[in-house]
Each structure stands twice: as C-alpha cells, then as structure tokens.
Design a protein that fits this description.
Length: 333
C-alpha cells in the first residue's frame, strides 16, 4: 500500500508539472560561464563579419512612465557597428535600431548571427526583441520566451536568470553574444531567410504594468530591470556578428559582383560613383538613420552633388538589381 501510494503520488506530481501554466524549472541555455551555454565570445572564429551600417534608428524615453525626463542619450549610433568592443548605444524604453550588412545573411546550419550587449554580470541583464527583414519594410520577430516571475517587478538594478529567457538579445554578459537561428523564422511570410539584409533590435519595456508591458510570443509579460531613468536607459547594443551569410553559403560571391568605387572620400562638393552594375537608386543616410538624399540612379557612372550636407559621417547606399552596396562616406566642407 505504501509503495502504491508513493507511485500514485509521483504520477500526480508529474501530471501537475506538465499541466502547470507556469514554469517549474528553468529550461533554456545557461549563463556564459556554465556548461551548455549558447553564448559566443566576440573573438570566436565563427564570425565572418559584422553589421556595418545603420538603416534606421529611433531612441526611446529614459523612463516611458515619465516622458518629461527625455530620451536616452548614451552613445553614438555608430557604436553598434563592426566588431563588439564594449562601446554601446543605449536605445531607451521601446527604442530601436536597424543594422545592415554588406552581404545578406543566410540560413546556415545552427546559429546564423549573434547580438552583443554590455551587461557587467551574468545576471544584470537588459533585454531586447530581435527582428529580421529582407527588404527593409517587412520585419519578422524571433519568437521570444520569458519565464521570469511576473508577480514582482525586477528593480532598476535587479537580476535575471539567463535560463529563463530565450530568443531575447541581452541574455549574456559583455563580450558574449546571444545567437539566433534563422531556421526558427523560415516559414514566416514576406522574408527570405537566405537573403536577410537587416537586423532590428527593439528594447523590451520591462514594466509589469499592463499599459506599459511588452510581451513574449506566448503573451507573457517580459520582466526586466525597470525603471531605468538614466541617459543609458534601455537596451545597450554593442554589435551584431555574422556567422552565416551568402558568401559562406556560396549563394553570393563578391568575385561575381565587384564592389562599386566612390571618390573622393572625404568629399566636399561632389562625389563620383563607378559601379560594375547599373545603379537603380541612390540613398544617403546620416548616423541616426535619417534619409538626407533619395533619388533614382543614372547608370554605372554617376557624379553626385553633396554640398548641401553638413560635415560628418554618412552612409551611401547604391541599389542595383543584385544587391545593396553600402559605403561609409565622410563630408568635410
């Protein structure tokens, strides 16, 4: 009888655990210093490239519940470009930034790219949603999961357990990237996972208030440090590293599509563009992702006036049938 009751109790317990609406144990990859982690160090040889230009950028408020405090302001947007180096741009509550790549990302075996932040410990984590796009207009969000308890607000300097979050950037501390696998969104409409040109990072508003909360793919509130009423409030983006792109999958070869040349650089009055392909459109964006010039292309050889632009760094985009070529350009009048 005792043995029977014990077996029956264990059976009831297993059924309860399976049917329980809330998590009873952590189920995702652990912190970067633990066995079984998915964290990837910035110096790993798996990286074949890094995000190299800004497509668009919008900061959010330091504290969305107190908009009078103003927007987050820490870091220049260009801090998110190229290899992770612990130089970051702060997005603020619900802020976002969209980064582009000289060669589109593709869906290879396993992880395809990784997002880096600057958390100073394995548990002080600020989170962000991650979205991808093939055309810059239609974005698909990775199905994020947050199992963090929502009965109590995580405080401004509170802790999170990495094992309770999945498909959210910021899961790992500084120098370790959170990886993403395009296979998880391969069935989404309006994107081609073998031709991803843009990755967008969107800050999670960690508030537990219904009117402010952001939710994961299952409709659960995502709890992370809140409020963060500082210039460095919100998610801090360091870099996006590329693991698989069209070069590594042999879909695209730079030998087949030579790069365009743009000169002089820095420029003052005009720039000259020489391209092996017909340029169908030209856009110039400033470091905040704002479009300052947008006009049709004129063939393979173009002279463009830039004397209306202020001194500084810009991103020139050359659109052709086969690709988008980004060029970092300096104006010095």
């Amino acid at each position: 009888m005792v043995i029977f009751n014990s077996v029956r109790f264990i059976g009831f317990l297993l059924i309860f655990m399976l049917l329980s609406p809330g998590p009873l144990w952590a189920q995702y990859h652990p912190a970067a210093d633990q066995p079984g982690t998915s964290a990837i160090h910035k110096d790993s040889t798996v990286f074949v490239g890094w995000a190299s230009y800004i497509f668009d950028f919008q900061r959010g408020p330091m504290d969305i519940s107190q908009p009078a405090l103003g927007v987050a302001s820490h870091g220049d947007s260009t801090a998110a470009l190229f290899k992770a180096n612990n130089q970051v741009v702060s997005l603020g509550d619900s802020g976002y930034i969209t980064l582009g790549f000289p060669v589109p990302l593709s869906n290879g075996p396993g992880w395809d790219f990784a997002v880096f932040s600057n958390a100073f410990s394995h548990t002080f984590l600020e989170l962000a949603f991650v979205e991808v796009s093939s055309d810059g207009e239609h974005f698909v969000r990775f199905p994020a999961s947050s199992l963090t308890d929502t009965s109590t607000q995580v405080s401004s300097f509170g802790s999170l357990d990495p094992e309770e979050v999945n498909n959210l950037a910021g899961k790992y501390m500084v120098e370790y990237g959170t990886p993403f696998d395009l296979e998880e969104v391969k069935d989404a409409a309006l994107i081609d996972v073998d031709h991803i040109k843009y990755v967008r990072i969107v800050d999670v508003i960690g508030s537990m208030e219904d009117s402010l909360a952001t939710r994961d793919a299952q409709g659960r509130k995502v709890n992370d440090p809140f409020p963060t009423p500082f210039a460095a409030g919100g998610f801090d983006l360091d870099a996006v590293g590329v693991i698989h792109d069209q070069n590594t999958s042999d879909i695209y070869s730079p030998a087949r599509v030579p790069a365009a040349s743009v000169y002089p650089n820095p420029a003052s009055e005009t720039i000259h563009i020489r391209s092996p392909q017909v340029i169908e459109r030209i856009r110039i964006k400033d470091i905040n992702g704002r479009t300052v010039l947008d006009q049709p292309g004129e063939g393979k050889y173009i002279t463009l006036s830039v004397n209306h632009l202020s001194d500084g760094l810009y991103f020139l985009f050359l659109y052709s049938q086969q690709q988008i070529t980004p060029v970092k350009m300096y104006i010095a009048q």
